[in-house]
Fold this protein.
Amino acid sequence: MPGQLDIFPLGDRALVIEVADSVSEAATGHARRLAERVARARLPGVREVVPAFCSITVHYDPVALCAGGLPFEILSARLLALLSGPEDEAPSPGRVLEIPVCYGGDCGEDLAALALARDMTPARFVELHCAPTYFVGMLGFAPGFPYLAGMDQRLIAARRATPRSRVPAGSVAIGGEHTGIYPFESPGGWHLIGRTPLRLFAFERDPPSLLQAGDRVRFVPIAPEEFERAAEFQRAAEELRA
Amino acid sequence: MKVLRAGILSTLQDLGRWGHQRFGVPVSGVMDEVSHRLANLLAGNAEDQATVEMTLVGPGFALTRDALIAVCGGEFEARINGEALPRARPVLARAGSTLDFGVCRRGCRAYLAVAGGFAVDPVLGSRSTYLRGGFGGWRGRPLQRGDLLPTAEPDPARYPSLHRKLGERRAPMAYPGWSVTERVELLAPGPYLLRFVPGRQWEAFPQPVRERFLGAEYRVGSNSDRQGYRLAGPLLIPGAPVEIISGGVTFGTIQVPPDGEPIVLMANRQTTGGYPRLGEVATVDLPLLAQLPPGAPVRFQQVELATAQALLIERERDLARTREGIALQSRR
C-alpha cells in the first residue's frame, strides 16, 4: 500500500487527499478504503467524501472547524492522524459485477467503424472489450456514470469531435482510454459500442448507483433478443413500481 | 399557490443534495446561497427549506390561501395585484391575490420563500430540482403553468402585527417598515471582483498564462447556466497540456478545457472533472457571481486560503446576527 498522503486545498470548503500520482487498480482501491474510513469516522465539519482514481475529495464546513486555527489545517491534521492510525475495521471486499451488453447494430452505432479503423472484425473488437476485468475509477459526468479503467490499449479512441445530442440510456461507450456507461439519455461525446439493459442509477434504490468507485466489472455479450427481453422486463418492473 | 406563468426557469431548490456525490449525484441546490437563506429566515423557515429560484423572467402565482412570503436576490419587477412587492422583508399576502414577478432589472436570480415551505417529498435527502436526472423539487422539472404548489398555513404567532394589519385593511398584503440588507455590489457597473484561491495545478500553468488570467477582464458567457459559467476573454492555452488525473470538483472550481475558455463550476456542476483547474472562487463571492447575467464583466484576484476562510467565517457571523434580529422582529 502506498504510504505518503498529500493533502491540498480545493477552495475554502473542500480538500483533496492524493494517494498516488498515477492511475492503477491498487491506487483506486486504496482511495476507496480511505474514503470509507473518513466517512465512518464522522469527523466534525466533514460533509461528504468522494473517492476518485487516485484521490479522495473531502467536502467540509470551515465554520465548524474554526476554533484555534485555519480550518483547512485543523482538518488536515485530524485526517492525517486518522489515516496514519491502524485500520479500524477490515475494508469492504471489492465486488465484481457482470454487465450484460448487446454489442453493435442499433445498440452500438460506432462499433463497426471503430473496428474497421483498427483493421479488425467487430467480433474481435467485442472479444477484446470483454476480455479484461475493469475497475471503476470514479463516478461522475452524470449520476451513476462509471469511468472504467483497464481497457485494452488497442481500443483507445479519442472522443468524437462533435458530441451527439442524444445518447440512449444504458449505452456502453469508449472515451479515450476509458469505457463508460450512460445511465440516462443525455448528450455525449463518447463512441457507442453497445447497450446494457441494466439500470445504472435509480434514485429510489439504496444505494442509488449500481456501481461505486473501486468496484470491478466484466462485460458479458448478449444477443439482441436477450437485450429486448431484459429491457422489456425492466420496463414492466418500472410500471409495477409506478 | 397556483402557477399562472412559468417564467424562464423557475425551479424549487434548497441548500443541495449532499452525501451522494460518490455516486455521481450533483449537489445542485441554489445558485445564490445567501439570498436563499435570507428569504427563508424572513419567512420563518429553516435555511434549508426549498425556495423557488427564478431566473431573468420570473413566474406568476395565484395565492389560494394567505401566505407569508419573502423575496431576496436579484431585483425583479415583482407585484401583488399590481402593487409593488417590497423586497428583503416578510410580506403577508392575502388569499386570492396575484403575485407576479415580471422581468429582472438587476442581478439574475431571485428566491421566493413561503412560510412552512413547499410540501414536496425530498429525493435523496433534498428538495432541489435536478433537471438532467429529472428528479427532485417539483416533479423533477421547472414549474409550469397550471401547477398547484402545496404550501403550509402561516403561523399567526409569527409577525402578529402583520396578521393584525392584514385583518384591519383591504390591502392585498401587509409588511413591516424594516428590511434586511442585501448585497450592494450589483449597484455598480463592474467589473466585478471575484477572489479565488489558487489550486493544485495553478503552478503547473505557465507564468504567462497565469498572468493573462490575473490581468484580464472576462465576461460571463452567453452559454452559462446552472452547471457552469463560461468566461469570454483571453484564452488560456498552455504550450503543453497541464496533466491532471480526474477527481473531485466543487462549487467555484475554475477549470480550463482544451479550448482555453475558463469555466467556473456552479450549483449543478458534475461531481468530478478531468480538466486542469486554476483554483476555486472564494465561497463568499459565489452569490455575487450567481447574480451576474451573461455579458457582465469580471476580474479575478488571487487570495490566500486563510483569507477566503476568514471571509467565510465573518460572513456566517453576520448572517447569525441577521438571524437573531429577524427572530426578534418576528415576535412583534
Summary: The radius of gyration of chain B is 21 Å. The CA atoms of residues 129 and 135 of chain B lie 6 Å apart.
